[in-house]
Amino acid sequence: MNNAKSSVDNYVQDFPKETQEILELVRTSIKKAAPEAEETISYAMPTFKLHGILVHFAAFKNHIGFYALPSGNKAFSKELSSYKTGKGSIQFPINKPIPLELITKIVKFRVSENIDKATAKKQSKKKSKDS
User: I need a surface site. Which of 5, 40, 80, 87 has the fewest CB within 10 A?
Assistant: First the structure.
């Protein structure tokens, strides 16, 4: 087991059983939506990276925080309208079903966004090198 997985496992284990189950559902949804992503801890939260940060998630007393960066929130603002959101944060209440399908859509959006950015950056570097 690598250290990142171990660290995320440790993070999850620090919460009550019911919260652990929710965190694992979120984690599994992210893994399925971004199977190539690296799992790590960043900003003291479970984080998935693929060509940069995709998403973070965290548990709090009354909600699961999901951090899809500002672009994820903006792209899904209509679907997120019933949740408390900030510039790059979403709060999913613990006492209601977690919208795993929506999380999957947001993660897939972020994967596509990061791949597009990485491709554009690579092409830009190639152009600069060829000039």
Answer: 87
Q: In 3D, which of 112, 107, 84 has the Cα closest to residue 96?
A: 84
CB atoms within 10 A of CB 92: 21
Q: Indicate the domain borders of the chain.
A: 3-115
Listed in order, strand segments (DSSP E) in 9-124 are 38-42, 45-49, 53-59, 63-67, 84-85, 89-93
97 three-state secondary structure: coil
The answer to whether the CB of 34 falls within 8 A of the CB of 54 is yes
Q: How far apart are CA 52 and CA 44, in angstroms?
A: 17
Q: 């990276």: which residue's tokens?
A: 49
pLDDT digits (tens, 9 = 90+) for 13-38: 999 999 999 999 999 999 999 999 99
Q: At what angle do helices 17-33 and 3-13 cross, to 10 degrees?
A: 140
- For the record, the structure tokens of 76 come out as 């899904």
pLDDT tens string 51-67: 999 999 999 999 999 99
Please tell me the class of the 3-115 domain.
alpha beta
Residue type, position 79, single letter: E
Could you tell me the two tokens for 12?
């999850």
